[in-house]
Every structure is written in C-alpha cells, then in structure tokens.
Amino acid sequence: MFAWNSHGTELKRFLRLPLTRAAIVAILLIPLLYGAMYVWAFWDPTERLRDLPVAVVNNDIAATTADGKTVHIGDDVVANLQEEQPLDITVTNDDDAKRGIESGKYYFMMKIPKDFSSDIVSLGTQNPDQAKIDVVYNDANSFLGSILGQNAMKELRTRLTATVNEEVSSKMLNGLSQAHDGLNQAHDGAAQLSAGTQQLGEGNGRLADGAHELNSGAIRLATGASQLASGATQLKNGIDAAYDGSLAVSVGTGKIAGGANLLAQGSQQLTNGITSAGAGSAALHNGTTQLLGKVTLLANGVKQLYYGVHGVPGDPSNPGLQPSLTQASAGAQQLAAGAKTLADGLSAMQTNSLDTLIAALENGDPLTKQIAEAKFRAAIAQTTQGAQQLSDGLNGTSQTPGLAPSLAAMSSAVDTKLVPGVDQLYAGTNSTTGENLVTAVSKLDAGAGALNNGLVQLQGGSQTLTQKLGELSSGAQTLNQGTVQLSSGLDKLSSGAQRAEDAAGQLAQGSEKLRDGSATLADGATQLADGSKQAADGAGELANKLAEGAGKLPAASSDVIKVQASTISQPIALESHNNNPADSWGEGFAPFFMSLALWVGSLITWLLLRPLPSRLMLTSASSWRIVASVLQPALALLTGQVLIMLGVMHWAVGVDYTHCLGTIAFSMLVGVTFMTMQHAIQAVFGAAPGKLIAIVLLMLQLASAGGTYPADVTPRFFQDVHSWMPMTYAVEGLRETITGGVETRLVVAIVVLGLVTVASIATSIIATSRRRVWNVSTLHPALAL
C-alpha cells in the first residue's frame, strides 16, 4: 500500500525548481515534437512541387505540317509549363542548366531537342518518329528530388501524349471523312453515268422512230414507182394506138414528137431524184455502220465496269469492289471487338492486379509501397487509356463515327446504289437473253443496206425508161398517118403522162420524207454519241474517285502498322540521364541515415561519458586541457563508430562509396562536429538539459536537413532553418563523397562544419572556465542524467 501511494514523491521533487518543472514540460512535449513535427514537415511534399527548382532548355525548331501550317510545339510546351507552374520552372540555356544541375541550383533539367516539333508532325505520316525529351537528374542533389522529378516528368509525358493522341486521332478521322467525301463524289459520278445512259436510251428511241419514218417513206416511194410503171404501160398502149393511127393521121406527128420530148425530160428528172435518194441512202448506211462500231465499244466498256464491281468470273485474284469492301468491314468489326475486349481486360486487371500488389507489399516499407503503387497505377491507367482510345477510334463515339461503322456504311452504299446501276447498264448493253443495243443497231444497219440496194436497182430502171422514151420520140416523128387514131392515142398519152406526173410527185414527196427521216436519224445518232460520252465521263470519274478514296485510306503491311501503332500510342519518350546516380534507395538515403547515426552516436557517447568530470574540474589544469582530456576518449570512440559503420554499410549492406577516403575523412569531420557541438551545449546548459536540447535539435534537423524530401517542398519554417542546421551540410557533403559529383558544396560543407567545430570547442572552454566556480547547484544539480 505504501509503494502504491509513494509514486507522487518523485513527481513532487520535479516540481520544486523552475528547471525541473521545465524538464517535465519537455518530457510531455517530446512525443508531440516527434509526431507533429514530422507529420507537418512531410504532410504532402507533392503539393509543393511548384517550389522545386527545375531548369528547362528549349532548342526546338518550328516544323511545317502537311497542310502547310507552321507549328512550334516546343514553345507551346514551355508556355504551358510557365502558365500552369507544376514546378518552379526556369527557362535557360544549356550551359546554365548544366552548371545549375552540378551546383544544386536545379534538381533536374528538362531539355526539348531541336527536332521535337518535326517528330510530332511525323506522327500523321506513314513513317512516324517518336519525339524525345531529354531529362538530366543528379542524385547528389537529392535522391528523392530525382524521384519526384521522374514522377513529374512521367505525368507531363502522359499529358503531352494525351494531347498528341487527340491531334493524331483528329487527323485520322479527317482522312476518313475525306475518303467519305470521295465516295460521295463517286456516287455523283454513278448518277451522272445513269443520266447518260438514260439519254442514250432516249436517243436510241428517236433513232428507231426515224428508222420507221424512213421505212414509211421508202414504202410510199415504192408505191409511186409502181404507179409510174402502170402509167408508163398505159402510155405505151396509147403510143401503140397512136402509132397505128399515125398511118392515117400524119398531121399529129409533130405534136406526138413534142409530147414524147416532154415525157423524156420528166423521166430524166425522175432519174435525177432517184440518184439523189440513192446517195442519201448510201450515207445513211455508212452512218449506221459507224454507229454499230461505237455501240460495240460502249458495250465492252460497260462489261469492264461490271467486272470491276463483281469481279472477273473464274479469277479469284480479282474479286471486285463489293467483296473487298465487305471483307474490310468485317475485319474492322473484328478489330473493334478486340480493342474493346482489350480495354475491358485492362480495366479489370487494374483492379485485381493492384489488390494483389498491395497485398504483396503490405509488410514492406511504406514509402516503397506508395511508390510502387503509384507507378503501377500510372502504367495501368496509361495502358487502359491507350486501349480505350483505340476502341473509340474503331467503334466511334457520340461525336465521331468509328472506322468499323464507316466501312459498313460504305459497303451498304455500294450494295444498294452502285451495284444495281452497273447491273442495269450491263443488262442493256451485253444482255444474252433478249435483244440488246448492239443487236438493234445491227438490224438497223442491215435495213439501211437493203434500202440502198433497192434504190440502186430503181435508178437502173428509170434510166432504161428514159432511153426508151427517147426511142419513142424518134419513132413518133415517123408517124405520118392515122390522124384520128393519133388524136385518140395522144389523148391516152396525155392521160398516161398525167399519171406519170402524179407518180413523179409522189416520188418527190417520198424522197422528202426520206430526207426528214434521215435527219431525225442523224439527230438521234448525235444524241446517242453525246450520251455515250457522258456515260464514259461518268464511269471515268467514278473510277478516279473510288481510287482516290481508296488512296486516302491507310494501306500498309502488318509490320509497318505495328510500328505506327507503337509510335502513335507512345508519341513522346523520356531520355533520362543521371549525372551521379545512386545505385539503390539505400544508397540514396545513406547520407541522411549516416548523419543521423553520427548524431545519435555522439548523444550516446555523452550519456556514457561525463562532459565535465568533477575530479578534473577540481584540478589546477587549464580549461582547454580539461576540454581536450574530455574530448580525447569521446573522439576515440567516435573513430571506432565511423569505421565500424562505414565498413558494415559497405561490406554487409552493399553501399559503394564513389570517393572512399573522402567519405571516411568527411564522416570523421561530421562526427567531430556533432561530438564537440553536443559537448558545448552540455557545458553551457548542463548535462541533463544539454542532452534534452540535443534531442530537440535532432528532431528539428531530421525534418529540415533535406535528407529525405528536398527542403524546397517542405513548409516555409523548415526552409528558413534549413541552412542553419549542421546536419544539412553533413548530408550534402556525404552525398557528394558517396554518390559522386564533387563540387563547391563539399567545400562549403567542410568550411561550415569546421567553423562549427571550432566554435563548439571555444564555447566548451569558456563554459568550463565558468563552471569551475562551485556552488550549491553544482554540488546538488536540480536535474541529472
């Protein structure tokens, strides 16, 4: 019971004096300092990346796109960085950036090469080149600073890749749109071909009508010729009667002779008309023969168009337009389905694989777990985004159609519009089941030939008639008798002549109709030629537009497509270089933990050794001798601490020292600085308060020395005290001796630590001199450890 109630006795002892009460407050606040200070310092360094100094060098040269537009993509990237300020961007030149990386002015350097714009522009061509951004790090500045820089550059590359992919997708969709326009123009050409074919049919109809009229005129001409022959017979009978009467009537001989002459002249005119009709019939026959040749060429051209659409029968190498479009549409649909399956699979993998990775790293280092999880999320998100963009490009979105629907619509347009028109045109010119255009024109040519032959024969008969009428006139002059019979014969001869005149008139009218029909036939043939030319022009335009549309669609081998897809999916690459790389995370954090170890080692040393032994203080030795005698065993222990720590870290842990002797010497300097500094604090404030102050300084330095995250991404308070902490210079110097890249910072660290050591020894000597005056508090300190 007494032991239970005696616990307050020890606490009451600490409440007697101000110093002991302050010790109670310090004991209460130390966990708060450890917890709150570290959480505050490292709350979210990534939110302060805009304070991380970074050099940007822009050597990009402007490039020209395929449509003649000049682009400055490097300038656009720099302007975007300056506007958004994701980092503390400084745009400078190569020399300043390199010097800044070496001196620690910049944590890393981003360099845009001169061919950056030209490489981005090439992504829309058949031979794309991956654009590159050169990044230079220096782990001697800060290992975690390089890690933060790498993550920031990956984020920047992701954003630039998304922007570039959007531009490339827009160009691809524009190309498909142009191909669509070409097919629309091909459709217009097919419509023009259909209109020409319709005019060709109308011309053929007019040609048939003209041929019918020509036939009717020929019939009427034959009738008139028959009537002329009948009249000539009656005339012959009358002349015979006149001949019989001429024996008795010679007076009418002169009149008979005159009438015979007139009849001969009329017969000659008839012969001339028949000759003209024969010449026109011959010209008609030649025209129909030429028309037959042109129509045959038209039929052959339509046949080739038909084979181009349906393919050549029996030739599997030439399947035609329609099966090729159907096959392309099916392939695009399969590719679209595969792209969607890939995107879904990646999305599922993102969830399942991430859970597995988190479970695997659950017992590992938290920082390692966070970094691995962030890298994995970024890689899966980037891959999923690329697959989704590929799926959208093939399947289409609400704003833009995809490749597969476009090919399906193209195939449907060919099936429903182009193929029926070509089939009808082929049936009209190359039909094997009924009468086609070539057969009809052949029959017309044969009829024109027959008409020409008949007119030739008619011309021969007319000439014979004229000759006989001349003989009749000669015979009439010999008639000297038969006046009564001659008058009767002349009357009959007059009637026959009248009928001959009528027949000649009918023959003239028939010839005029024949001429009109021939003119109509010529007009129809002209329209037929015009329609054929228009049909040929339409077919040519259709072929050109289809070829142009096919040329605008991508056509490359599978290997080239793989290269293009790989380049377009990753249009920008980061070419990273580390001037002084740390081999591992352990080597990257080694300067910080070694500095921590040397401070703690000094603290433990002064827990074992008395900073101001009472026996020495009572001697007559000078203060500097007392301080030297106290520091000698401490420095001997320090030497062992440094050698053992460096040896185990090298041979057991695996840390390689770029400058081994430099690392040993500088570690000794750091240890001496920390040892003398803690001795001076304890000499001034006393052993127990001095150790407490050393612990508080340790906590402050761990948060502000920049050993983990760069001081630039910590709160402003730690940035202000950063350059006043000796551990800051210890970390910077050890980074350069361990990782490499020795320059002025190591010299500055040596000078600063040397000055702190000298100042600490001087302070210890002064404090020792003052403490050699003893009093009650010296004999009975309020607080002792």
TrEMBL record:
Q: Where are the transmembrane segments?
A: 22-43, 589-609, 630-652, 692-711, 746-767
Note the InterPro entries from the entry.
ABC2_TM, Phage_infect_YhgE_C, Phage_infect_YhgE_N, T7SS_ABC-Transporter, xxxLxxG_rpt
Which residue ranges does the record assign to the ABC-2 type transporter transmembrane domain? 24-161, 562-765
Q: Would you name any one GO CC term?
A: membrane
Q: Where in the cell is it found?
A: Membrane
Q: Which Pfam families match?
A: ABC2_membrane_3
- The answer to whether keyword Membrane applies is yes
| UniProt keyword terms in alphabetical order | Membrane, Transmembrane, Transmembrane helix
This chain's protein is named YhgE/Pip domain-containing protein
Please name the source species: Arcanobacterium bovis
